[in-house]
Amino acid sequence: MQTAEQTLDEILTLAAQHFKVPREKLSADADFFQALGIDSLQTLDLLTKLENHFHVELPDYELQGVTDFRTLAGKIQARL
Amino acid sequence: MDQFQGQTLSWEVKNGIIELALHREPNNEISSHTLGELETFTAELKMHEPDARALIIHSTVKSGFSAGADLRELYGWIQEFGQVEVANHAREYLERIHSVMNAIDVSPLTTIAAVHGVTFGGGFELALTCDLMIADRMARFCFPELRLGLIPGYGGIPRLKRDLGNAVVRDLLLTGRSFNATKAQQIGLVSQVVGEGEALRAARATAAQISKFDRTTSAAAKKFIKPIPHEELRREIDIFCELIARPAVQAGLKKFVESTSAQPYLP
Predict the structure, then answer these.
(1) Beta bridge partners of B119
(2) Is A43 within 8 Å of B263 when comparing Cβ atoms?
(3) Predicted complex ipTM
């Protein structure tokens, strides 16, 4: 099984690609709403992208209070 | 008329296929204006049913098929009518909505919802009136109404029960969580999952296939296989109207409408 760091790295890459933001501007502890300039509907887009990529299902209520990529990666990792 | 361009939607009839496009920016929220145009559409639909072969409903709005009911409008009613009178107003409105939804549900045409992105609440309920749902990989479905102290009121619960197992319906309804197209196909809600942006193309190909069959036979098969849950649809309206007068609903809608955060659509 892949490591949490690998998962985090893939999430940062996917997020950068999907929202057309330079990868180097995203950091693990950045607030992804601000870093990506997205709202809640776009966050759900990101969730869909991640679910499709990692072949997991992550209930969106698990995103309550989650604002940084590292914590998001932890949620995905827990479902792998 | 073979085509119509409204403020919230448009349609055209081409080679026997009716295409209804939702286009109220930014999220196709279903307002009373949308309802008025849907009523115009369903009146026209009846005129075309003898000759048309299929109906496709889709959205041209980037964010998705539809984010559901216009909650700002709903909140406005509560403020305008007060908690008691709003139930009467809601009943009248829901009966009109149900009339539109039922007209699409019972149409003798084979109907296809081509969905992408956010397909929530009333938008999900509109898609559920169709015989087939084709979703692109980025489609996301949800009944978020419990978050607002309400239940789906546009016929969603009886139609979801018609299509899915009760345990799945309980999960979706009672958690209010959203789920993606892959899950939707796994549970039997969506018949095809296609690449991003490909839902309408796939729907057109499916409509072309459907069009090959004798219309009378297709209509008879559809009527046989697709029950309309009339009693439950009426009961859903009753329950919705009982709930809407509650302070919890006003509080939930107020929170959504006044939210300045980036997160109103998250649980």
Answers:
(1) B66, B141
(2) yes
(3) 0.90
